[in-house]
Amino acid sequence: MTVNRGMLREQGFKALSEFLNKLHVYKSIGDFETAEKFFLHYTKVDETMLKVREIVVANKKPRRIEL
């Protein structure tokens, strides 16, 4: 898996902004059912993401200790 950091700044911020704007509109108008369905759809964790998480946790570096 690779990440193109240039595209992250260009398209990632725009996509995240649109996602949060939609969620905010649903919450603001009191449409909790639609907001919940919308949010749960995009936060669902599948088997592929669980495998990715295992790899990330296995390669995690320890935190720096600053005195």
Characteristics:
single chain; 67 residues
Structural summary, described in words:
The chain has 67 residues and is mainly α. It has one domain. The chain has helices at residues 5-28, 32-42, 47-58. It is extended.
Tell me the strand percentage band: under 5%
The poorly predicted ranges are: none
Span between termini: 35 Å
Number of strands: 0
Given helix and strand content, the structural type is mainly alpha
Mean pLDDT: 89
| Shape summary | extended
Helix content: over 70%
Count up the helices: 3
| Helix/strand order | HHH
Count of spatially separate domains: 1
Largest β-sheet summary? none
Radius of gyration: 17 Å
TL;DR?
The chain is mostly helical and 67 residues long.
Write the layout of secondary structure elements.
Blueprint: H1 5-28, H2 32-42, H3 47-58
